[in-house]
Amino acid sequence: MNTYSLGYIDDLYVQYVKDPESVSPGWRRYFEQFLVATDETTAKLTEAATAAADGDGQTLGNVTEHALWLARMQDQVDQLVREYRVRGHLVAQVDPLGMAQKGCPELNVESYGLTEDDLSRPFDSSALENVQGRTLNDVLQQLRNTYCRNIGAQFMHIDNRNIRDWLQRRMEVGENRMPLSHEVQRRIYSRLADATIFEEFVRRKFVGAKTFSLEGAESLIPLLDLALEKCGQHNVKEVVMAMAHRGRLNVLANIFKKRALNIFWSFDDPDPQLHRGGGDVRYHLGYSSDWKTASGDKMHISLCFNPSHLEYVNPVALGRTRCKQDRYGDSKRQDVVTILIHGDAAFAGEGVVQETLNLSQLKAYHTGGTLHVVINNQVGFTTEPREGRSTTYATDIAKMLQIPIFHVNGEDPEAVAQVVNLAMDFRREFHSDVVIDMYAYRRWGHNEGDEPRFTQPEMYREIDARQSVRKSYRKRLLKLGQMTDEEAKELHRKRQDKLEREFEATRTVPFVPDVQSLGGSWSEYVGGPEPENDTVVTGVDKKRLSELLETLTTIPQEFNLHRKLKRPYEQRREMAAGKLPVDWATGEALAFATLLTEGRRIRLTGQDSERGTFSQRHAVLHDEESGSIYTPLEHLAPDQAKFEIANSPLSEAGVLGFEYGYSLDCPEGLCAWEAQFGDFWNCAQVIVDQFIASAEDKWNRLSGLVMLLPHGFEGQGPEHCSSRVERFLAMAAEHNIQICQPTTPAQYFHLLRRQVLRRWRKPLICLTPKSLLRHPLVVSDLKDLEARQFRKILPDTQVSPDNARRILLCTGKVYYDLLEARKQRGLEDVAILRIEQLYPLKQHELMSSFGGYAEGKDIYWVQEEPKNMGAWPYLKLNYGDQLAERFKLHCVSRVESASPSTGSMRTHKLEQEELLEAAFASL
Questions:
Q1: CA 876/CA 866 separation, integer angstroms
Q2: Phi, psi (degrees; rounded to nearest 5) at 51
Q3: What count of other Cβ atoms lies within 10 Å of the Cβ of residue 611?
């Protein structure tokens, strides 16, 4: 109904006056409850109805006019109530500085044709459900209290009416203010005191040091305290948290209970040898501890290590949460909760935020709902909101989800308590994300060495005039009689004295590094250098392989396999019988199958990974008629481990971060991310640079993540050829990662199994093929999967070292191009060696592969990439001198280039012919 329906309502009302039974029960209740408001009105309507029955046309007109007025008023009030729910947040007092006050004409009664007289009229509000009042003014006051005080709620964008009704009921019944007990109020004050006293102490003792102070946003500490208590009430077992710099030391001290002594030592940095070439700054460090709730229950809490790219930790934390839930067998995703703490500028500005939000309701990435807390500084480093975002709020990106966003004044701790309670209940009820946008400010600028008044003079005049939130809340409790002045002073003294004792201990107690060792599920695994003699057995009995391959090709009788897949499945059965060699996809499937039946779980995600970008994997089959799915790797044995494969969204940073996070809590399994093409990881380079390649050196954190990157020059243009291996090699040091390019199904089989079966845990960058997936030479016998291990360098078994006039050294697909060119030229004295593991590769391992070759011979490093890319710069730098001592070293490659390759197929073929010609020149 709307204002265009007033004529219809008019007619109905006349019918009702004449005979109430002549209208439907719904309209009858409407007129009875909402239009007959006072005895006076009732008398007038009764009189009018009598006159109407006697045929008095003038009186009937008066009844009609009155009915019309009442209907209009009800419709206008309905619109006004809705506007408060939709737009009340625009005028809410959420900014503690009061600098960004806005008006909203839609909330003025005059906009709806209502007057001051209408506000005081008797009014039946029962149609408004949660909103009650004797007059319209009473109703509006309740709405203002709910939506326009220190909490602004955005929730009317949510399509699901049940969710909106739930939120309205929770907010409107109590006017968005949670009644707090004496104990809770004292607890809030205590946490504010913890936060403030810590910051003041550190600033006084370590003058000029960077701490990224929490001052101005101290309410974060009671917020987190209350959130964790709520998690305890919800029987949560673990909480994974992630945050940027601001307030991190405070959170470590007052939430994670990291000893202040160790935090103070991080300022003194007493051992310069401890972190030579490694470690990280104190405000990037993570920590784990146990939280004891008010009821006495324990809950494990973890704070993720975080690099300077503020928001990139978000998917990492969610991946950790997902893995922990899987370990608990928590299919409802409620045993482990994620809390992410953001800055306002970063939340609005960094694209990984959108990628992370997009993962929240996807089956393969769902974690049951994340609590997002935005510490709203109302400024970036020096950048005003009007310069840093195109939206009203920093949190507007979150409206892409069907979730509520609560804006709250950080100087009102009790309003903060209300939104935390509401947000955590919402997350539990609807298994969805929820956002708390806590408006605050930075008392000392971006960091303690910064002068914010250079760029925000007006803001800092307001800040300089403000007392801390602890002092203002203390006044409130003193006024309410909930605390005495002496009690407040005693609480302050105890906390101050404790910090003083810890500070003095840094001068008297011998320094002990505060390093949390790898334990729990990581206790059996090691990092450090690659083992010299790796005795792990990766081969599998040939009979067992045949049995597994038979199982993999056994499809339920009622399943309608796509007609184009029938022949490949027949070929796999022939492979199982030993009649055909194993191709690449089958080698991978057997690696997965053997690991799964040995109790090793597998998780693989990526863009189109279920089928495979090159239509090679077909791990998930789709019934040709019904569209139902069947995953053979899930049906190997009753006691097999879990196999999870999923097509990811078109995201690199978010998904790679998620899988890296998953791998941090999954040392015993195979966790892999697959790029659609090898270079796609460049959109997630932050994850590689600041987590995958450096986490062990910075934070002593291990990972066995596998990155599968299709690589090879095939004339498909610059973005679809190169995995940019040179970038990985530039980051390779201290045995931090593995970079491999296997060229046979057997090598790939052993590599995947080795990654899981070794105790040594390092990320694996695996360059996988494209055209080689179906190349007739890229095959292996089942016996190769049975007998061999992964080999870092594959020798030439066709050319004897004694007969070799030239040695070609290469990696990857170009080997098969060289092999074919050698055959076409009829050459039997050119040896071709393949490096299958580019890193780690010790000098003696490389040099020993040339043991049978006479000194002085020519060695040509052959690569498809331009000379400034690929492995050549790395090989020349690290092994060039040693090779040059025994051999004549040359490089055959494309010329130096700013782009990886040409986009022309004809040009590609020409360049490839020139490359091969140069490799065999003068022979």
A1: 14
A2: -65, -40
A3: 15
Measured over the CA atoms of residue 756, residue 759, residue 763 and residue 769, the dihedral's sign is negative
Residues 6 or more apart in contact with residue 467 via CB below 8 angstroms? none
Task: Count CB neighbours of 139 within 10 A.
Answer: 21
β-bridge pairing 629-630 and 336-343: unpaired
Q: 616 is written with which tokens?
A: 């090679």
- DSSP code, position 55: T
Q: Quick one: which of 741, 151, 39, 141 has its CA closest to 415?
A: 151
Give the other-Cβ count within 10 Å of 488's Cβ. 20
Residue 314 CA to residue 3 CA, distance in Å, equals 47
338 DSSP β-pair partners: 240, 370
pLDDT digits 0-9 by tens, 730-769:
999 999 999 999 999 999 999 999 999 999 999 999 999 9
Beta strands in 138-286 (DSSP E): 151-154, 238-243
Helix axes 161-172, 136-147, angle to 10 degrees: 100
The residue type found at 741 is: Q
Q: Torsion over CA of 84, 90, 91 and 96, rounded to 10 degrees?
A: 140
With a CB cutoff of 8 Å and minimum separation 6, the contacts of 395 are 344, 347, 348, 372, 374, 405, 407, 435, 437
pLDDT above 90: residue 100: no
- In angstroms, the Cα distances linking 495 to 193, 272, 462, 502 are 8, 31, 29, 11
Q: Pull the structure tokens for residue 602.
A: 């597998």
pLDDT of 4 above 60? no
The Cβ-side half-sphere exposure at 42, using a 13 Å CA radius, reads 8
> What span, in angstroms and rounded, lies between the C-alpha atoms of 717 and 417?
56
The radius of gyration computed from the CA coordinates of the chain, to the nearest angstrom, equals 35
Mean of all residue pLDDT scores within the chain: 91
Element (H, E) at 591: helix 584-597
pTM to 2 decimal places: 0.92
Coil, strand, or helix at residue 780?
A: strand
The partner residues of 291 in beta bridges, in order of sequence, read: 299
Characterise 560 by phi-psi region: left (phi > 0), alpha (psi -120 to 50), beta (else): beta
Phi, psi of 780 (to 5 degrees): -140, 150
pLDDT band (50, 70, 90) for residue 347: very high
Q: Within 10 A of 758 (CB to CB), how many other CB atoms are there?
A: 18
Give mean pLDDT, residues 857-865: 97
Distance between CA atoms of 763 and 705, rounded to whole angstroms?
A: 5
Kindly list the strands in the beta sheet with 764-768, ordered across the sheet, starting from the edge strand earlier in the chain: 643-647, 602-606, 670-674, 706-710, 764-768, 738-740, 837-839
Mean pLDDT lowest among 39-53, 113-127, 169-183, 724-738 = 39-53
What pLDDT digit, counting tens, does each position of 283-301 carry? 788 899 999 999 899 999 9
Give yes or no for a contact between 431 and 163, defined as CB atoms under 8 angstroms apart: no
Q: How far apart are the C-alpha atoms of 902 and 721, rounded to whole Å? A: 10
Determine the length of the chain: 923
Secondary structure (3-state) at 854? coil
CA distances from 267 to 211, 249, 270 (A): 9, 11, 9
Question: Over pLDDT 90: what percentage of the chain?
Answer: 78
Say how far apart CA 307 and CA 317 lie, in whole Å.
13
Beta strands (DSSP E) in 381-492 are 405-409, 434-439
Query: What DSSP state is assigned to residue 379?
Result: S
Cα–Cα nearest to 764, from 711, 728, 815, 812: 728
**Cα–Cα distance measured from residue 59 to residue 773, given in angstroms and rounded to the nearest whole number:** 90
Q: Inform me whether the pLDDT recorded for 851 exceeds 60.
A: yes
Q: Which of 190-204, 282-296, 340-354, 678-692 has the lowest mean pLDDT?
A: 282-296
Rounded Cα gap, residues 250 and 347, in angstroms? 21
pLDDT of residue 283: 73
Residues facing residue 600 across a β-bridge: none
